[in-house]
């Protein structure tokens, strides 16, 4: 659903004559291994020289430092149809990117490094923007399929040998969940040794510099207890500040809003089906990135984005909103954030959700502590 018409083309995708065995629904929900670091250094951590055992994607110590000796795992997760929600595993990701795909829809690219999850999904197809995420984090990429032109770009990229799709070589890291009359492709990051061995993937530790974390609340912010991000009448979300946990809770669309101005939006909490906990992030970053339609013919859309260079961004942390600049000078560089005075901007130690919207998107303050972003493409 909500894929371009060409998305059903499978000619460039390897196939298998055998169907992997279904995933079971009896595995116990994983427990997050990310823990707060006592006496966090006043000077912060990053963007380089990370202490042993500290995750450079969260600025926090991990319970199992051996997890940091591998590549990150990037998994494509669907957002529509609503009947397929809630998703599995998003709360266990270090970083999640949400971005526009086509016809008003979005999908997620979830980055797992300091945690594992036995169920992540539903896993869906790749898009052009995924190239940026895989290159930034030098990760292994798990996805369901791709339109022929997208898959071709994947195959001609520097990560062509780190692609994992459903096949005999990827089971049980990728398998089928068939409960409740559903048939979903699900990833299990604890089983990645199988496709890594079968496909000969180099899973050595990579340089993941460029993020900076600090407990001290930066100056120059404005109170932000609720922030809306609207991609379309079908896809919109809201982040509400939770002062008890010092993080933002995610609420999402439950009906289509045909008003055109947000007056018909109806929200509900988005939970993780693996943990039954509401999605909650210490940081939410809105990235304003140039979008370009490669196909827009009334029946289908294909979008690409220019995520090299600089642009405007907004950071939500500690109940505050800050206007900053995003910067990414090379394809293998993790996006960095800089304050107006040119200093690297600190995120709160913990997880981060990136909302990627068009460079021409609108931003408005609705009241003293409520803000709204409306995505505009391109």
Architecture overview:
- Helices cover 6% and strands 32% of the residues.
- Strands 4, 5, 6, 7, 8, 11, 17, 20, 21, 22 and 23 form an 11-stranded mixed beta sheet that branches.
- The chain has 378 residues and is mainly β.
- 46% of the residues are buried.
List the helices and strands and how they pair.
Elements: E1 22-23, E2 54-55, E3 60-61, E4 73-77, E5 95-100, E6 106-112, H1 130-137, E7 140-142, H2 148-155, E8 163-164, E9 174-177, E10 184-187, H3 193-199, E11 222-223, E12 226-230, E13 236-242, E14 247-253, E15 267-269, E16 280-281, E17 283-289, E18 291-296, E19 301-305, E20 309-317, E21 320-328, E22 336-338, E23 352-358, E24 362-367, E25 370-374
Parallel strand pairs: 1-9, 4-7, 5-23, 7-8, 12-25, 17-23
Antiparallel strand pairs: 2-3, 4-6, 5-6, 9-10, 11-21, 12-13, 13-14, 14-15, 14-16, 17-20, 18-19, 20-21, 21-22, 24-25
Briefly summarize what is shown.
The protein has helices spanning 130-137, 148-155, 193-199; strands at 22-23, 54-55, 60-61, 73-77, 95-100, 106-112, 140-142, 163-164, 174-177, 184-187, 222-223, 226-230, 236-242, 247-253, 267-269, 280-281, 283-289, 291-296, 301-305, 309-317, 320-328, 336-338, 352-358, 362-367, 370-374.
């Amino acid at each position: 659903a909500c894929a371009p018409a060409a998305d059903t083309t499978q000619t460039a995708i390897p196939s298998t004559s055998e169907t992997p065995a279904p995933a079971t629904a009896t595995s116990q929900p994983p427990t997050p291994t990310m823990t707060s670091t006592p006496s966090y250094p006043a000077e912060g951590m990053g963007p380089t020289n990370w202490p042993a055992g500290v995750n450079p994607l969260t600025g926090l110590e991990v319970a199992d430092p051996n997890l940091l000796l591998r590549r990150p795992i990037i998994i494509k997760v669907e957002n529509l149809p609503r009947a397929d929600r809630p998703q599995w595993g998003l709360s266990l990701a270090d970083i999640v990117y949400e971005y526009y795909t086509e016809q008003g829809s979005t999908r997620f690219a979830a980055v797992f490094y300091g945690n594992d999850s036995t169920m992540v999904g539903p896993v869906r197809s790749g898009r052009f923007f995924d190239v940026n995420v895989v290159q930034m984090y030098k990760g292994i990429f798990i996805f369901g399929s791709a339109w022929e032109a997208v898959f071709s770009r994947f195959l001609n990229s520097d990560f062509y040998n780190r692609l994992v799709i459903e096949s005999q070589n990827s089971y049980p890291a990728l398998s089928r969940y068939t409960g409740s009359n559903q048939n979903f492709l699900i990833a299990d990051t604890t089983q990645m040794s199988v496709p890594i061995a079968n496909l000969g993937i180099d899973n050595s530790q990579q340089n993941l510099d460029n993020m900076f974390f600090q407990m001290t609340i930066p100056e120059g912010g404005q109170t932000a207890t609720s922030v809306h991000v609207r991609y379309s009448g079908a896809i919109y979300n809201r982040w509400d500040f939770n002062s008890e946990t010092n993080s933002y809770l995610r609420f999402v669309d439950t009906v289509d809003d045909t008003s055109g101005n947000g007056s018909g939006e109806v929200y509900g909490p988005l939970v993780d089906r693996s943990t039954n906990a509401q999605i909650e992030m210490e940081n939410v970053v809105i990235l304003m990135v140039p979008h370009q339609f490669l196909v827009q013919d009334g029946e289908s859309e294909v979008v690409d984005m220019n995520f090299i260079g600089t642009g405007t961004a907004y950071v939500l942390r500690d109940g505050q909103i800050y206007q900053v600049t995003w910067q990414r000078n090379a394809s293998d560089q993790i996006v960095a954030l800089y304050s107006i005075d040119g200093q690297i901007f600190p995120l709160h130690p913990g997880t981060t959700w990136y909302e990627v919207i068009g460079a021409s998107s609108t931003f408005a303050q609705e009241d003293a502590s409520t803000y709204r972003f409306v995505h505009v493409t391109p």
